[in-house]
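Good morning N.,

You mentioned wanting to compare the apo and holo forms, so I went ahead and generated the holo version with adenosine-5'-triphosphate. This is what I fed in:
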Amino acid sequence: MRVAMMTALNDSIDRLKTTYDIGIVREVSPARLRVSGLRRVAAQGDVVEVSGGGGLRLLGDVEAMAGGFLDVVPRGLTKGICEGDRVLHLGRDVFAPDDSWIGRVLDPFGQALDQRPVRQGAQERAIRATPPAATSRRGFGPRLETGHAVFNTFLPLAKGQRIGLFAGSGVGKSTLLADLARQVEADLVVVALIGERGRELNHFVDHALGNDGLKRAVVFAATADQPASARQRCAHAAMTTAEFFRDQGRHVLLLVDSVTRLAEAHRDIALSRGATPGLDGFPPSVVQEISQLAERAGPGAGDAGDITAIMSVLVAGSNMDGLIADTLRGVLDGHVVLDRGIAERGRFPAVNVLRSVSRSLPDCASDSENAVMAEARRALSQYSDSELMIRSGLYESGHDKEIDRAIRLWPLLDDFVGQGTGMTTADDFRMLERILATA
Ligand SMILES: Nc1ncnc2c1ncn2[C@@H]1O[C@H](COP(=O)(O)OP(=O)(O)OP(=O)(O)O)[C@@H](O)[C@H]1O
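and this is what came out, ligand included:
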């Protein structure tokens, strides 16, 4: 531990600069600064610091160079920055996760959002790493305990699996993600909160996740008021940190909330660079952005651990066919749909079992467990097919034995799906069998 700390300290000292090259701000806009005077020293991807009036300090990333000027993407708001302000060339963009980040709330650049100093790790990591080669990766590991009956049974989450959580606004997505962050079996949790309001971030960290949840988590946040570049980087910073812990052999649970906000940030950046939007408003490159991120999660290779990922997607009116929802569904290993109708009648988590799929099945469950799930799903589906008739009083009891049984089972199964009591998978399956035996 002490050696690691000394190495990290030495590394930080090595990175310290004693002299700085200085440039000048020539043009200011909310999304971009044009800087002169650093043409021969700055490279693409380097970091600069703009010193505005009244002690204002703004970091920015060198995005492009042309005609002797640098195009700098600011990491914060450019309000207060003027033409003629000084620009220090800080050097390479260093992102070096560290064990001490566990329990912290950080911005996408690895700086503190909780007002305490942050130690940088010994090793820099690329913020956009390539995933392990597909052929060298393991398959899914064992089914994880999740503390939720529905995920322990109908929609299992296996080690290294990546699933999407598809939800409209206000149907309990954040509460469920925080619950999973606290309860899913993992060595640690890395969370990316992208484009939330500041109030939602505080609520998530202080109340939903709480002290116990935060103890084993690293939370990255870029709120809605942050520039698109920071919101986009938030997902990649979280993934890079998850990879750092994965490479130590640990099992990481990664939560990205939400991929929709990542896609919107990517769109804003791409359109400002002149990309052409498609019919849905997103540039075609958004598909690659999402797919590449998703591909970095999953089972590890060799001695590395695994990254189990849950990525949320905002769907308007349960429309699963939008570009982002459709892309993510294609690249992930399962999707869970939260249903507004279910949330409105007060059953949480508002998971619609019939519209959700886990691709770790059938392999991660035994034959008898698969048979129990198939029987329960059949009953739910029979009830759903006849629900309109049943609710409008058009169905006459005794007409169809299977529908009669589905009507008896439905409230019991619905109640079961809503249970998040921290029971084990074995207990949950026993309970499901008991429910099926009652009717
Ligand atoms: N497990 C639960 N038990 C009881 N009520 C819940 C539960 N989960 C969510 N709710 C109710 O749903 C509301 C919305 O929950 P939450 O903020 O988690 O939804 P969201 O989908 O993340 O919302 P937004 O889209 O606004 O971020 C909560 O304020 C609460 O009233």
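The pocket of adenosine-5'-triphosphate is lined by residues 167, 169-175, 200, 348 (CB under 6 Å).

Happy to go through it together on a call whenever suits you.

Best,
F.
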